[in-house]
Every structure is written in structure tokens, then in C-alpha cells.
Amino acid sequence: MPKNQQGGAATRGRNVRRPGLRGDVSISAICAGFIAVAVSYAGPMLVIIQAAERAGLDTAQTTSWVWAVSVGSGIVGLVLSFFTRQPVVVAWSVPGSALLLAVLGDYEFSDAVGAYLVAGLLGLVLSLGGLFGKLLAVVPRPILAAVLAGVLLPFVLNVTHAVLASPLVAGGLVVAYFAGRRLFPKYAVPGALVVGVLLSVAAGQARAPELSLALTSPLFTVPTFSIQAIMGISIPLLIVTMAGQNGPGLVMMRTSGYEPNDRLLLTGTCVASVLFAPFGSHAINLAAITAGICCGREAHEDPAKRYVAGVAGGLFFIGFGLFSATILDLFAAVPGELITAMAGVALLGALHGSMLDMLDAGPHGPAAIEAAVVTLIVTASGIAPFGIVAPFWGVLAGAGVYLVLTALRNPRGRKSSVGQVRERQVPVPEPLG
């Protein structure tokens, strides 16, 4: 069944009434939400911790930062997923964290908080006007799908390194995943996670964490404003968050068969960014990587019921945020290879779907596929000149190539040799099991 028909009216429409949440809850969706949050804590969270250490933030400021991005992401993701009946996964800006890794120490922390606030307000202006969604709408679909594929590809490729580094744990997890895809496809991802944890314990690669269960107390910082911080943090943070996170996040939902209300979703994330900035949150936005875990078939075979993964992810984020210090200790107890392998296999379905969309020319013609390949290469390269992340440059390169190729048409509309490339029909493999 075509992807855009899978979810029916409930998937595409925003005003269709559906049964209550209880009837849609599934173990696979809850596990997908948990894995999405686990991946966020095991990888991107480490960037925040490193940025805080380099900037010389104290324990209270760092813990409040983790609390703010976690609780803020959880509330927005839960509310938007429940009311839109779509798997809306919200997290903090990963490229924004990487940006702060280099510049946060150059400013007073209160100035940085003021810059976060300005970035959130600027994003809110763009979102309320629907400008960002309109800009995405004019870019050919294969190019947007290629951006998503380029973002996902490095995470999937990292599985090979994890398997080489830890053949028993990571390799066993991968084998368990594909065995699960054959035997019980709905629970392949959580099954692989259980196997990976058991193998890490058996191999002695997991350690007993030193846990002290205590609620995190957020720290309110009165924002101050400086032109230097606004130019050095606000503007770059706005660009990398909108282009590197919100753009691919919307594309992820669309390539999964949903029609997200970009104005509603982006407005919600920007409001949260403004509200949680005084507690240390640098930016809250649509998730790009972990959204693939909740939007894919691993969450539920019925796309109309995958929103439960977004609701579950929101609840886990809130819970983890309330006990952020404890949770960080818990995730540090399992080997990194397990998390790397788990993220890679959980994103295989999303990568598969984005690759298929990338190779589907549709009404744009074969030139769109050639431009999409360029987009994939640039995005997957991970380049970040001027502090702007690769997805932005990927879209720019792909759109430029597409404009050049489609300009090579004669006045009568006949395509040049570039446009005469024969389109290939990409077969869609049947689901296993």
C-alpha cells in the first residue's frame, strides 16, 4: 500500500475524531518512545555536558540545563502528539549544542540565556507566519528526502564500527534485530534492546550504576542581553535549529506518510524555547533523528496509532528530566557500542523510506534525482562551514543543482540530455514476516 494511503484520513487529517488513547496503546509504540529518548540521552546529551564543562558552568546550572531541555521537550511532544494524533517527537537542538560547545565560554551565562530567548522569539515569528513551511514546500521532495537520508546515514553506518568494537554485544544486537524482523516484526527493536542489554551484562561490559533518586531543582537565570551574544549565539542558533532540526523533522514526518501542520508544530516548539530559556534551555525543536524511530513501522504497523510513541516519548522525557542526574548515571552504565548499534537498527526503516522517496522523481523529473544525490553527499559529509550544519548546505547544493539542470531546457520545453535520463522504478520490498 502506498505510504500516503497507509494512515487514511486519521493520518492525514488534523480534525478527524479517533477513539481514546487507551485503545491505541501498544507495547511496540511505548518501546519506540523509550528508545527515542534513550538515544537522545546517550548521544546528544553528552554534547550538552561537554559544552557545560568547557564553559565552566557549575553543577546547578548544568543540571538545570538538562532539566529544561528534557521537561520542555516532553511537554510539547506529549501535547502535540495527543492532539494531532501524529507521532510528534520533540527534543533539543543537537547542532545548537555543538555550536555552544565552541562559543558558550566566550559569554556571560546570563547573556547566553538572553541569546537563547532572542533565538526563540525570532523562531516564533517565522513559525507564526508559516514562512518556514512555505520555503520547504517549494523544494522538490527528492531533495528533502535526500537531506533526511544524509542525516540518518552516518548513524546507520556507525553500527559497523560498533560491531567491530564489540562483536558480542553490538553484533548480537544486530542479529537479534533481523531475527526479530523475521519472527516478530512488531517487537524487533525492543527485542534487540533486551538482547543487547543481556549480552552486555553477560560480557561484563555493563557496570552497576551508583544511583541516588532525587528530584532535580531547576535554576532560574535572569536573562541579560548583549549585541555580541545575540550575533554570536542567537543568529547561528536560529539557523542551525531551523535548517538542521526542524526542516529534517518535518521531512521525516512527511516521508512517513503524515501531513504535519508546520505552523502549529513549530510554534509549539518555539513557545517552549522561550519559556524554558531562563532555566538554561538553548533550543527546543522537532527531532530529526529520533523521530524516525517513532514514525516508522517499528512503532506500530498502523500509522494512525504511532502517535502513541510520541506521547510515550514525551512522558519519558518528562520523567527523565525530573530525575536528570540519576538518569545520566544510569545510561552511563551500559556500553556505548550498545547504544550506537541500537540507534542504527532503529533508524533502518526511516532510512529505507527516505531512500525510496529520494529516488522517486514524481512530477519534478529525473533532474530532481540527480540533485538529490548531490544533496545526500553534502549532507552525509557532515561539513559545517561558518558554524552552519551540513543539512543546510545539502539543501542549498541540491536546490542549486536542480535549478541548473532544469534551466537546460529549450524554449519549447524540450528537455536537454540531462532531462532525458530514463527514470527507474524502484521496487518497494514487501514487509518481512
TrEMBL record:
InterPro entries in alphabetical order: Benzoate_Transporter (IPR004711)
Organism domain of life: Bacteria
Keywords of this entry: Membrane, Transmembrane, Transmembrane helix
Transmembrane intervals: 27-52, 64-82, 89-107, 113-132, 139-157, 163-180, 187-205, 225-244, 307-332, 338-355, 390-408
Coiled coil: none
PANTHER family found in the cross-reference section: INNER MEMBRANE PROTEIN YDCO, MFS FAMILY TRANSPORTER, PREDICTED SUBSTRATE BENZOATE
The protein's name in its UniProt record: Benzoate membrane transport protein
Organism: Paeniglutamicibacter psychrophenolicus
Top-level taxonomy: Bacteria, Bacillati, Actinomycetota, Actinomycetes, Micrococcales
